[in-house]
Design brief:
This protein is an all-alpha fold and about 110 residues long. It has four helices and no strands.
């Protein structure tokens, strides 16, 4: 059985988006633009909303610059967590390979004279 799942399309070019938003600002409705450009009405409304945030006309969400910074910080945070976990795993594997002998740590055993 073959499942028919719609594939995502590549992102629209920034120039295309900015021209569409300019047409919306000029007074065209999302419905008529959607028909002429082949973009959904909701996509056009989303672009207009983000443009308004970027121009500080709305404050109900992050601007594009803030979204980019959040994306960068999340990537950096994930990388740092991975580095920390790898370092911890290396440290623990060295300890267990050298010091653990079944039920006691060698360092706690009495030394021979």
């Amino acid at each position: 059985m073959v499942s028919i799942v719609p594939k995502t399309r590549p992102a629209y070019p920034p120039e295309f988006r900015s021209e569409a938003v300019q047409m919306l600002r000029a007074g065209r409705t999302p419905r008529e633009l959607a028909e002429s450009l082949g973009v959904s009405e909701q996509t056009l409304r989303n672009w207009r909303r983000q443009d308004q945030r970027d121009r500080h006309e709305r404050d109900d969400g992050p601007t594009s610059d803030e979204r980019d910074e959040l994306r960068r910080l999340r990537r950096e945070n994930a990388r740092l967590k991975q580095e920390r976990d790898l370092s911890r795993a290396r440290r623990m594997s060295r300890r267990s390979a050298v010091a653990w002998t079944g039920c006691r740590w060698r360092s706690s055993w009495p030394r021979r004279a």
